[in-house]
Amino acid sequence: MIEIIMVVAIIGILIGIGFFSYRGMMDRYNVEKQIKEMYVDLMSTRIRAMQRNRIHFVAFTSTQYAVYEDTSPVPDGDGTLTIGADTQILQKSLMPNFPVTITSWPPPNQWSAASPLQFNAKGLLDTNVTTTGTVRVTVEANGEYDCIAISEVRNSLGKWDGTQCKAR
């Protein structure tokens, strides 16, 4: 009888350890999933700007981001995001358990609907209008990737080291 109780206790301990390991693994997976989806959407926006030969915007809020094509006024837009008039290409909600911080450089600039990320018709970040910066998940989950460094010519997946996004 004591042996059965010991076996059940050991199995219970192993299941408890397994549960916490599984939860940590799922957190890492979800952080990486969110960052990789954002990375793909940003790269697709760059490519679409080149394909369509038109300015594209990425507007961030604390809970979502949206991609717009500059179509207002017709035919080629005016280089300014006009929500409601410009064509919305994509809108994605962020995972509520894994919020992101958007930091543009130089501070205190922040990308937002009022000051969106802007890619010109060549697919380059328009640094006359938009600054470079970082998008990162603020929850520490030890994923392989937890940030995106955005520069004029390149987006890079990386790992946040406490002060900057280190490209991997």
Characterise this structure:
With 168 residues, the protein is an alpha+beta fold. It has one domain (2-52, 96-167). It contains one helix and nine strands; from the N terminus they run αβββββββββ. A five-stranded antiparallel beta sheet has the order 4-6-7-8-9, with helices on one face. The chain has a four-stranded antiparallel beta sheet with strand order 3-2-1-5, with helices on one face. It is elongated and about 80 Å long. The N and C termini lie far apart (55 Å). The mean pLDDT is 87.
Question: Would you summarize the structure shown here?
Answer:
The chain is of the alpha+beta class and 168 residues long. The protein is built from 1 helix and 9 strands.
- Secondary-structure-based class equals alpha+beta
Indicate the radius of gyration in whole angstroms. 21 Å
Low-confidence stretches: none
How many runs of DSSP E, i.e. beta strands?
A: 9
Q: Count of DSSP helices?
A: 1
Describe how the helices and strands are arranged:
Blueprint (H helix, E strand, L loop, with lengths): L1 H51 L3 E5 L3 E6 L17 E7 L6 E6 L11 E3 L12 E6 L9 E4 L4 E6 L4 E3 L1
Antiparallel strand pairs: 1-2, 1-5, 2-3, 4-6, 6-7, 7-8, 8-9
